[in-house]
C-alpha cells in the first residue's frame, strides 16, 4: 500500500472530476433545453482546444486574448451548429437525433485531424510556475486554475438559472416546451443559446486539458467519459452532473491505484467508469438527482 | 399470393395471405432470383476488386441486418454492434483452432455463442429503453473491447488469431471467387429468414414493442422477453457476419472493432432505411462503396490545384471518415426514411405515371 500515491491520485481525481463536471454541465444544459443527447460534446472540447492552440502558436496572441477569441468563436460555432444541423431534427425520434450528433462527432473529429494532424501538439508555456506544492503533493498550476475556473463556471451556471431571464426561460422550456412557447418564450432562441453556452464552456475545459496534456484527438474521449458522470448524477440535473463528475474522476483514479497495486490489468483506469455506468443503469437508471419519469411497465 | 402482372394497379388484397406474402408479384420474385443468379455469376463477369467489394457487402450486410432487427424493428438503439461482430469472429477462430471444429460448423456455432453473449448484454434492455439503452450499449462496447484485449486465450491479445479457410468435402473456399458463394449462401438464408421472421407472431410482437410498448404489453406481449430476444437475434446475425469476416481474412484481431465501426453499422441501417430488409442491403452497399467513391474522386483530382490547396493526398483517410459523418447528417436531414423509401417512391412514380397520385 502506498498512501502517498493514493492521496495524490485522489487529488488528481478530484481535479479531473471537476472538469468532467464542467463538461457534464454542458451536456445536461443541452439535454434539459432540447432533450438532445450530444454525443459530439467531446468534439466541442477538441475544437475549442485546437482553435486556441492555433491562435497562440500561429498568431502569438497572449494567452488571455487567445482564450477570449476562442470563446467568442465557440459561441458562434455552437449557435451555427444548432441552426444548421439540429433545428431540422426537432421532433424527430430519439434514434435520429442521437445519430445526428454521432455523425457530427465523426465529421468534426475527422476534420480536425485533417486540418491539424494526428500528432499531439503541446501548448506554449502559459504559466510561469509549472507546479506548486500543497501539503507535500505536486499539483500543476493549470489544474489549480482549472479548479478555480470550474468553480466560477459552476457558480455562474447556478446564478444563470436562478436569476437571469434567459436562464428562467430555459428552465421553463425544459419543463414544457409548448407551455413555454405560449407564454411568449422563443423556444428556438433558448435552444440556440443553450448550444452556444454549451460549446463555449466545453471549450474552456478543452483548453485546460490541452494546456496540461497537449492537444490531440484523444481529447474528445472526454465526451464519452462524461456519460458515466452524467448518468450517475441524473441526466437532467446540473448539480448531479457536477457530483457525478467528481465521483467518476476519483473513482477512475482509485481504479488506477487498485490496478497498479494489486490487479495489474493495465487498463482498468479506462474501463472502470463503464462498469459503474452499467451498474447504475441497472439499479438506478435515473441517477441520483434525475427527474424520474413515472411509468408502469 | 403472387400475382402474375409486372405492375399491379392498386392495392386490392382481400386475404391476409395475399397481404403477408414476401413477393407481391411473380416479377418481384423473379427479379430477386435474377439478382442472386447475377451475383452467383459474378466471378465469371467481374474482376477480384469487385468481388472483394461484393463479399464485404455480404458479411457486413448480414451484421447490419441484425442491427436493423434490433433498431429498426424493435426500436432499441445499440451503439455496440461492432463488438458482437468481433465476438463472432473470435469465437469462430477459437472453435476452429482450439477445438478443431471445421469452419463449416464453427461459423453457425459462433453465431450461437454470440447470441448467448448478446442475451447477457441484452439484460439491461429489459429494463431500459431509448437513450439509456444506447448509453448502456456504449458501455458494453468499451467493456467487451477491453475484454478482447485482455483475454489472450480467446483472442490472441494484440497479435490476433488465425482461422482456417472454409472447406467442404475437401474443397477449399480460399479465393474471392469461391468464398463469394459461401457469403452468398449465408446472405440468402439469413435475409429470407429475417423476412419470414417479420411474418410470424414473434416478429409482429417485436414491431408492436417498437410502435408503442405500453399498448404492446396490454395486448399480451411479454416486453422483457421480446426486448431480450431481439438483442439475441441481432447478436446472432452479428456473430455470423463476424465469423464470415474472420474466415475470409483468415485472421482476426481487435483492430478496427472500435466504436467508429459500430457507428458505421448504424449508418448503414439509417441510410438504407430503418425497418426495411432490402434497405439494409442497399445501405450496406452504399457504405461500402462510399469510401471507394472518395478514393476515386481523390485520385482523379490528383495533382490538380484543388489537391495542392487542400492536401487531399495526406488527408484521404480523414476525408473518408468525414464523408461517413457527412452522409449520416445529410441522410438524416434530407432522406430520413432511407434509400428503401426512395426506391419505393421511384417505383410508385413509374406505376402512376403520368398522374402524380
Automatic annotation (TrEMBL), chain A:
Keywords: Amino-acid transport, Cell membrane, Membrane, Transmembrane, Transmembrane helix, Transport. Gene3D superfamilies: ABC transporter involved in vitamin B12 uptake, BtuC (1.10.3470.10). GO terms for cellular component: plasma membrane. InterPro entries: ABC_BtuC-like, ABC_transp_permease, BCAA_transport_permease. GO terms for molecular function: transmembrane transporter activity. The chain crosses the membrane at residues 6-30, 37-56, 62-85, 97-116, 142-161, 190-214, 226-251, 272-289. One of its GO terms (biological process) is amino acid transport. The keyword Transmembrane applies. It is a multi-pass membrane protein. It is found in: Cell membrane. Pfam families: BPD_transp_2. Belongs to the binding-protein-dependent transport system permease family. LivHM subfamily. This is Branched-chain amino acid ABC transporter permease. The lineage of its organism: Bacteria, Pseudomonadati, Pseudomonadota, Alphaproteobacteria, Rhodospirillales.
UniProtKB/TrEMBL annotation, chain B:
InterPro entries: ABC_transp_permease, LivM-like. One of its GO terms (molecular function) is branched-chain amino acid transmembrane transporter activity. It holds the Pfam family BPD_transp_2. The chain crosses the membrane at residues 26-46, 58-84, 104-123, 130-149, 178-198, 228-249, 261-290. One of its GO terms (cellular component) is plasma membrane. Keywords: Cell membrane, Membrane, Transmembrane, Transmembrane helix. It is a multi-pass membrane protein. Signal peptide: none annotated. The keyword Transmembrane helix applies. It is found in: Cell membrane. This is Branched-chain amino acid ABC transporter permease. It comes from Aliidongia dinghuensis.
Amino acid at each position: 500500500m502506498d498512501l502517498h500515491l493514493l492521496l495524490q491520485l485522489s487529488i488528481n481525481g478530484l481535479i479531473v472530476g471537476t472538469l468532467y463536471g464542467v463538461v457534464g454541465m454542458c451536456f445536461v444544459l443541452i439535454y434539459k433545453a432540447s432533450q438532445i443527447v450530444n454525443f459530439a460534446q467531446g468534439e466541442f472540447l477538441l475544437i475549442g482546444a485546437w482553435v486556441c492552440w492555433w491562435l497562440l502558436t500561429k498568431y502569438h496572441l497572449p494567452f488571455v486574448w487567445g482564450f477570449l477569441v476562442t470563446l467568442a468563436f465557440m459561441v458562434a460555432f455552437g449557435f451555427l451548429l444548432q441552426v444548421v444541423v439540429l433545428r431540422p431534427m426537432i421532433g424527430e425520434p430519439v434514434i435520429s437525433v442521437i445519430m445526428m450528433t454521432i455523425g457530427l462527432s465523426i465529421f468534426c473529429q475527422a476534420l480536425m485531424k485533417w486540418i491539424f494532424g494526428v500528432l499531439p501538439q503541446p501548448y506554449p508555456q502559459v504559466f510561469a510556475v509549472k507546479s506548486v506544492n500543497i501539503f507535500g503533493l505536486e499539483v500543476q498550476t493549470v489544474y489549480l486554475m482549472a479548479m478555480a475556473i470550474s468553480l466560477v463556471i459552476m457558480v455562474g451556471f447556478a446564478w444563470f438559472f436562478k436569476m437571469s431571464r434567459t436562464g428562467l426561460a430555459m428552465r421553463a422550456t425544459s419543463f414544457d416546451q409548448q407551455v413555454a412557447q405560449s407564454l411568449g418564450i422563443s423556444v428556438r432562441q433558448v435552444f440556440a443559446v443553450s448550444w452556444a453556452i454549451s460549446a463555449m464552456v466545453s471549450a474552456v475545459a478543452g483548453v485546460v486539458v490541452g494546456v496540461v496534456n497537449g492537444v490531440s484527438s484523444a481529447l474528445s474521449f472526454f465526451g464519452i467519459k462524461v456519460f458515466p458522470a452524467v448518468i450517475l448524477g441524473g441526466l437532467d440535473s446540473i448539480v448531479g452532473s457536477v457530483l457525478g463528475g467528481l465521483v467518476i474522476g476519483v473513482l477512475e483514479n482509485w481504479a488506477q491505484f487498485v490496478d497498479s497495486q494489486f490487479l495489474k490489468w493495465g487498463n482498468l483506469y479506462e474501463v472502470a467508469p463503464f462498469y459503474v455506468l452499467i451498474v447504475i443503469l441497472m439499479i438506478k437508471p435515473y441517477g441520483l438527482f434525475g427527474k424520474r419519469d413515472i411509468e408502469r411497465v | 399470393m403472387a400475382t402474375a402482372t409486372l405492375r399491379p394497379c392498386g392495392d386490392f388484397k382481400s386475404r391476409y395471405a395475399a397481404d403477408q406474402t414476401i413477393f407481391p408479384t411473380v416479377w418481384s420474385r423473379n427479379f430477386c432470383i435474377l439478382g442472386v443468379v447475377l451475383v452467383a455469376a459474378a466471378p465469371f463477369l467481374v474482376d477480384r476488386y469487385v468481388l472483394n467489394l461484393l463479399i464485404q457487402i455480404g458479411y457486413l450486410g448480414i451484421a447490419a441486418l441484425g442491427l436493423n432487427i434490433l433498431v429498426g424493428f424493435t426500436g432499441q438503439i445499440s451503439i455496440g454492434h461492432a463488438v458482437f461482430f468481433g465476438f463472432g469472429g473470435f469465437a469462430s477462430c477459437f472453435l476452429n483452432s482450439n477445438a478443431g471444429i471445421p469452419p463449416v460448423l464453427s461459423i453457425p456455432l459462433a453465431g450461437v455463442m454470440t447470441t448467448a453473449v448478446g442475451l447477457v448484454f441484452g439484460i439491461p434492455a429489459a429494463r431500459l429503453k431509448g437513450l439509456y439503452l444506447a448509453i448502456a450499449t456504449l458501455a458494453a462496447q468499451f467493456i467487451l473491447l477491453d475484454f478482447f484485449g485482455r483475454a489472450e486465450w480467446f483472442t490472441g491479445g494484440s497479435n490476433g488469431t488465425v482461422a482456417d479457410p472454409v472447406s467442404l468435402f475437401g474443397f477449399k473456399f480460399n479465393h474471392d471467387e469461391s468464398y463469394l458463394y459461401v457469403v452468398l449462401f449465408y446472405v440468402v438464408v439469413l435475409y429470407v429468414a429475417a423476412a419470414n421472421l417479420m411474418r410470424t407472431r414473434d416478429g409482429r410482437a417485436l414491431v408492436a414493442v417498437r410502435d408503442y410498448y405500453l399498448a404492446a404489453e396490454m395486448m399480451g406481449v411479454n416486453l422483457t422477453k421480446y426486448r431480450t430476444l431481439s438483442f439475441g437475434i441481432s447478436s446472432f446475425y452479428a456473430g455470423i457476419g463476424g465469423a464470415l469476416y474472420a474466415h475470409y481474412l483468415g485472421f482476426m484481431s481487435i483492430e478496427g472493432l472500435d466504436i467508429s465501426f459500430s457507428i458505421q453499422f448504424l449508418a448503414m441501417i439509417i441510410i438504407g432505411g430503418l425497418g426495411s430488409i432490402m434497405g439494409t442491403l442497399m445501405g450496406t452497399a452504399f457504405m461500402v462503396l462510399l469510401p471507394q467513391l472518395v478514393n476515386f474522386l481523390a485520385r482523379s483530382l490528383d495533382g490538380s490545384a484543388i489537391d495542392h490547396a487542400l492536401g487531399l493526398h495526406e488527408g484521404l483517410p480523414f476525408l473518408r471518415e468525414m464523408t461517413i459523418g457527412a452522409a449520416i447528417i445529410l441522410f438524416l436531414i434530407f432522406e430520413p426514411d432511407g434509400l428503401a423509401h426512395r426506391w419505393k417512391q421511384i417505383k410508385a412514380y413509374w406505376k402512376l405515371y403520368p398522374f402524380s397520385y
